[in-house]
Amino acid sequence: MSDIIIAVDAMGGDNAPFEIVKGCVFAVGEHKNIKIILIGREKEVQDELDKYSQDKSRIEIVNADEVIATEESPTAAIKNKKNSSMVIGLNLVKEGKAAAFISAGNTGALLTGAVTIIKRIKGVERPALGTLMPMENGKSSLLIDAGANVDAKPSFLVQFAKMGSVYMENVMGVKNPKVGLINIGAEKEKGNTLTKETYELLEEADINFVGNIEARDLFLGKVDVMVCDAFVGNVVLKFAEGFVGSILRIVKRELLSSFLSKVGALLSSGSFKRLKKYFDYSKVGGAPFIGLSGLVVKAHGNSEEKDIVGAINQCIKFIESDITNKIQEKI
Amino acid sequence: MSDIIIAVDAMGGDNAPFEIVKGCVFAVGEHKNIKIILIGREKEVQDELDKYSQDKSRIEIVNADEVIATEESPTAAIKNKKNSSMVIGLNLVKEGKAAAFISAGNTGALLTGAVTIIKRIKGVERPALGTLMPMENGKSSLLIDAGANVDAKPSFLVQFAKMGSVYMENVMGVKNPKVGLINIGAEKEKGNTLTKETYELLEEADINFVGNIEARDLFLGKVDVMVCDAFVGNVVLKFAEGFVGSILRIVKRELLSSFLSKVGALLSSGSFKRLKKYFDYSKVGGAPFIGLSGLVVKAHGNSEEKDIVGAINQCIKFIESDITNKIQEKI
Q1: Residues of chain A with pLDDT under 50
Q2: How far apart are the first and last CA of chain B?
Q3: CB contact under 8 A, A242 and B215
Q4: Is the pLDDT of residue B14 over 70?
Q5: pLDDT, tens digit, for every residue of A19-55?
Q6: For residue B270, which residues of chain A lie inside 8 Å, CB to CB?
Q7: How large is the average pLDDT for residues B140-156?
Q8: What is the percent of chain B with per-residue pLDDT over 90, rounded to a whole number?
Q9: Residue A25 belongs to what H/E stretch?
Q10: What is the mean pLDDT of chain B?
C-alpha cells in the first residue's frame, strides 16, 4: 500500500504554527505509512521544523503567503484569499495530491471552502460536521450535525443519520449502530415540526433507528449516532464545554469550603486533573465534514500537539475504512 | 390587604397527593396571609390532611373526581376531563376565585388548559414557560421559553424578552435586566434564520438587549434573561439536568479510583451532598407560564414538599409584584 498523504494547515488555530508543526513531527514518527504536507508561510514553518531532531523526511512544506483569520467572513475569505493555507490545502485534496486536509482555523471558512472547492458525494444534499463525544459509560457517540447546517430540512437529517451510521460502523467498528433523534420527549408525537417530520422519515430509513433521545440522556451513551440540526448540535456541544468548566469550579469551591474537605480535595487533586482531561471532548481528534467526496477535518481552535496527532490518526482510520465510497453506497 | 388564595392540584406529579398536601400545610404555617384550595379526590386529600396536627383552617378542599395522567394527550385530556383537578383549578383562576394555580402534573395538558381556559394578556402572541436557573456566580437567570412554543417566530421571541425583563425587574428585583439571545456565536451575523431575524428586532426593542449569548456561557450568569424557542430551551434544561448527574457520578468514580482519593472523597462527602442540591435547579420554585392573564405555575413532576412551598412562595411574589399588569403595559 502506498503512503497516505495528509495536508495540514500550519497557520490555523490559536497555537499555530508551533503546536501544529510539533503534532505533525510526532505523527510521522508514529506512522511509517504517512506523508505530511504542511501549508503555510514557508520560513515560519521551516523555523518550527528546525527545532526537532527527529526524522522529517516525510514532511514537505508548501508555501502559502496568506492566512485566513478567525474573525473573517467565511465567504469573502475563501473568495479573496486564493493563496491562503486553507484554500491551498483544500485544492490539494480536490486535485488528489493529498488524501485529507486538517485545519484548526476558521470553521465557517473551512466549511464554505470545503463545499465550494471539494465536491459533495453524489446524492448528498448537505455535508455535516460530525463530532465524537465521550459518554459516561466510556463509549463515544457521534453528534451529527455539530456545526454545518443551522437551518435544516427533515431530508438533511435523514442523510445525517445514514452517514453517521456508516461512520460509526466503518470507522469506529460499531455493529449495526443505534441512531437516536435528539428531541424534547421520548414519544413519536413530541417535538417541533422539524423533528416530528424527521421521525416519520427515519422510521422508513434503512438504519437502526431507535427513536427519540431526550437531552437528559445525551451523555449516557444509549445510542451511537445522535442526530440534530447544527443549531441544536452546537448548543449541546458548547453548553457541555462551558458547563463542565463551571461544575468543576463549583466542585472545587465546595470541596475547599471546609477544613476536612480541603484535606480531601488535596488528596484528590490528581483525580481532578484526570477528570478535566476526560471532559475535554472538544478535542477528540477533530471533527470531519461528512458527505464530501474528499476528507476535510476540523481540529479545535485551541488544538495542541496531541490534538493534531489525534486528528491525523482519525484521518488514517477514515482513509483505510474507505468511508467515502461506503457513504456513496448508502445514500 | 385581603388573603391571597392559591389553588393547588393535589393529584399532579409523582408524589401526589402526599408531598403536595404536606407542602401546603407547611406553606400556610409560613405565610399568614394566604389561603390554599386543594383540588383532588376529597377523601384521599382529607386523609392526607388528617396526618398533620398543624392549623389547617386556611386550607379548603374542592373535590375533583378525575385526574389527568402524565402520559395522556394534552388536548384530549383537557377537552374530555372537565372534572379533573387540573381543569377545575384553571377554572378557579379564570373565575377569580383563586389568584394562582399550581400543578406538578402533565406539562402539555397544563399549558393547553391554561391557554384555552385562562385568556392571554391582551397583545401577547404566545405565553411562554419561564424557568429560573442558578448560575455559577450564585445569581439566578431566567430561561424563557423553557417549554411552551417549540416552533417560534421572531416576534414571539421579542415578546419573551420583554416579558422576561418585566419578570426579572419586578419579581426578582433586578434593575434594568440584561437580555441575551441564545445563539451559536457572539456576532450579530451568527445563527439560524430565527435568531438572525430576532436579533434585528431585539436591537429595536425597549429592553436592555446585550446581544447573543453563546451556549458555553449560559451558566456564567452574564445576563439576567436568556431568550430562545422552547425546543432549544428544553434541550438546555434537560441536558443540564442529565449532565450534572453524569458528571457527579464520574467525579465520584474518579475520586474513588485510588486509595488516597478514596480518603479524600470520604472527607468531602458532605460537600457532595451540598453540590447535588446546588444543581437541582429543575426545582427552583416551579416555572410560571408568563403572558397569561392569570397565574399558572408548573411545578416539577417529582416535586416534594419543599418544592411545593417554593412554588407557593413564588406565587406570592408574583401576585404582590402585580406582574400581569406590568407585562400588559410593556407589550
Answers
A1: 282-283
A2: 28
A3: yes
A4: yes
A5: 999 999 999 999 999 999 999 999 999 999 999 999 9
A6: 258, 260-261
A7: 94
A8: 66
A9: helix A18-30
A10: 89
Classify residue B200 as exposed, middle or buried by CB count within 10 Å of its CB (0-12, 13-18, 19+): exposed
Query: Do residue B268 and residue A270 have CB atoms under 8 angstroms apart?
Result: no
Q: For residue A24, how far is the Cα from the chain centroid?
A: 18
pLDDT at residue number A137: 84
**Three-class SS of chain B:** CCCEEEEEECCCCCCCCHHHHHHHHHHHHHCCCEEEEEEECHHHHHHHHCCCCCCCCCEEEEECCECCCCCCCHHHHHHHCCCEHHHHHHHHHHCCCCCEEEECCCHHHHHHHHHHHCCECCCCCCCEEEEEEECCCCCEEEEECCCCCCCCCHHHHHHHHHHHHHHHHHCCCCCCCEEEEEECCCCCCCCCHHHHHHHHHHHHCCCEEEEEEEHHHCCCCCCCEEECCHHHHHHHHHHHHHHHHHHHHHHHHHHCCCHHHHHHHHHCHHHHHHHHHHCCHHHCCCEEEECECCEEEECCCCCCHHHHHHHHHHHHHHHHCCHHHHHHHHC
Facing residue for B261 by CB, picked from A150, A267, A279 = A267
Mutate to test the interface with A, among B195, B227, B246 (most CBs of A within 10 A): B246
Of the ranges A184-188, B14-18, B102-106, which one carries the lowest mean pLDDT score?
Answer: A184-188
- Cα A230 versus chain centre, distance: 13
B60 DSSP β-pair partners: B37
CB atoms within 10 A of CB A232: 29
Nearest CA to A182 among A229, A221, A149, A244?
Answer: A229
Question: Is B182 near chain A, with CB under 8 Å?
Answer: yes
* Residue indicated by cell numbers 391582551: B122
Instruction: Output the pLDDT for position A240.
Output: 85
- Quote the pLDDT of residue A38: 98
Q: Which residue from A247, A265, A268 is facing B244, i.e. has the nearest CB?
A: A247
Chain B residue numbers with beta carbons less than 8 Å from the beta carbon of A184 are: 147, 150, 230-231, 234-235, 238
Sign of CA dihedral A240, A246, A249, A254: negative
ipTM of the complex: 0.87
pLDDT (0 to 100) of residue B187: 87
Residue B256 — pLDDT band, cuts 50, 70, 90?
low
Contact between B216 and A193 using a beta-carbon 8 Å cutoff: no
Among B residues 76-95, those touching chain A with beta carbons less than 8 Å apart:
none
Q: How far apart are CA B218 and CA B231, in angstroms?
A: 16
Query: Higher model confidence: residue B253 or residue B260?
Result: B253
Q: Which of A189, A235, A262, A278 best tests the B interface by mutation, with the highest count of B CBs <10 A?
A: A235
Q: Which residues contact A55 (CB under 8 A, 6 or more apart)?
A: A28, A29
* Chain B (233-262) residues lying within 8 Å, Cβ to Cβ, of chain A: 234-244, 246-247, 249-251, 254-255, 257-258, 260-261
- Residue A17: is the preceding peptide bond cis (ω within 30°)? yes
- List strand residue ranges (DSSP E) for chain A, in order: 4-9, 34-40, 59-63, 100-103, 128-134, 140-144, 178-183, 208-214, 225-227, 287-290, 295-298
Asked if A243's CB is within 8 angstroms of B219's CB, the reply is yes
Cα distance between residue A108 and residue A110, in whole Å: 5
Q: Which of B6, B25, B27 is nearest to B17 (CA)?
A: B25
Q: Dihedrals φ, ψ of A77, to 5°?
A: -60, -45
Question: Which residues in chain A touch residue B235, judged by CB atoms under 8 angstroms apart?
Answer: 182, 184, 215, 232, 235-236
Q: What is the pTM of this model?
A: 0.88
